[in-house]
Amino acid sequence: MPRMYRVMGFWTLAIGLMALAGHMIELALISFAQTAVFVLLGYMNLSEKAYILIFWGYLLVAGIGITYWSFFKMPLY
User: Fold this and answer.
1) Does residue 69 or residue 17 have the better pLDDT?
2) What is the rounded CA–CA span in Å between residue 2 and residue 62?
3) Phi, psi torsion values for 43, nearest 5 degrees
4) Contact 37, 5 (CB under 8 A)
């Protein structure tokens, strides 16, 4: 399980670099922050249950954030 967090760190780093190349600074900074958290968690060697609970918490926060952004922050055209 720790390896999967390092893999998620790799992919968020790739997304952050592509966002930076596309001049999307906010997305790049968010992706780099996620990269740091995922890599840090990947080297903590927690229990399997802790990793799963952290991942579900991450999914919950990300889902609420995406829903909030899409309803209240995105402009209607």
Assistant:
1) 17
2) 20
3) -100, 5
4) no
